[in-house]
Amino acid sequence: MNKTQLHLQNLHLLIKEAGSMAELARRCGYDNSASLSQIKRRLELQSDDENGRGIRPSLLAKLENGMGKRKGWMNREHDPEAEQRKKAEAAARLAEGKSEEAHMYAPRPALDFEQAEGRVAIVSRNTYETQITVAINLDGTGQSRFDTGVPFLDHMLAQIARHGMIDMDITCKGDLHIDDHHSVEDIGITLGQALKKALGDKAGIRRYGHAYVPLDEALSRVVIDLSGRPGLVYNVEYTRAWIGKFDVDLFSEFFIGLINHSMMTLHIDNLRGKNAHHQAETIFKAFGRALRMAVEFDDRMQGQTPSTKGTLTA
Ligand SMILES: [Mn+2]
After folding, report:
1. Over the stretch 29-77, which tens digit does the pLDDT of each residue have?
2. Count of other CB atoms within 10 angstroms of residue 62
3. How many angstroms is it from 119 CA to the middle of ligand 1?
4. What is the distance in A from the centroid of ligand 1 to the CA of 277?
């Protein structure tokens, strides 16, 4: 197919999509369709000319803009039926992921949460980038199982479980061939969703939690308010950019995802530390400890909501 034929074919597609030549002209900023008709006629006459220049670039841009096509659309061949089919398939896959049937292909928790006593939540989140299932029990014993494909993150999540006395089961199938970014961020998001769900109306809990945790030369402080508002103050200067194969920038992505979906206020300060592994580990241990304190029931609260507003979820 030569250039003139390609442009003519795409012009036909645009006319069909717009509904008529007149409508196409209107959308592309013409007062009437006469000049477009002339161009179409010229293309038809020149369609066998191998040296034909087709439609000039300024008009191509006008057509692409007017019909919401990407730059260069007019210079590529299109199969509208195949594109439509692909779109429908993608929409169906996305709808499936959002539905209650998500667990049909989202990973299932290996630990038994269905029968567990306590504040349990199981959340699956599916996108093209990651498929994640998080199961937690805030009233657990600290047992955990992780299969995220990011070993150092598993090591850190285990600190939250162990020191937060929270049972956790997290599975992630992510696009690790790109890098760890989407997996780490989306695990933060999904864990945040699970925390919010497990906390429910927060009646009778302590709400605030804090902890200092040292590890050899490193020391971190984490302060939590299960306020119902997202907020993160993150003061951490890692001494290295990488811990093994793990990019330390991703820790802040994890916590941003977490606070935005759990709706907590979170202050993280690494007060000192020379070894980046130690810095990270003190942060996650302190987070676990602080979270344990914040989610625990306070007997003296006697089931009241710890807020003079009367709610922590509105
Ligand atoms: Mn360690």
Report:
1. 887 788 888 888 989 988 888 888 888 888 898 898 888 887 788 988 8
2. 16
3. 28
4. 6
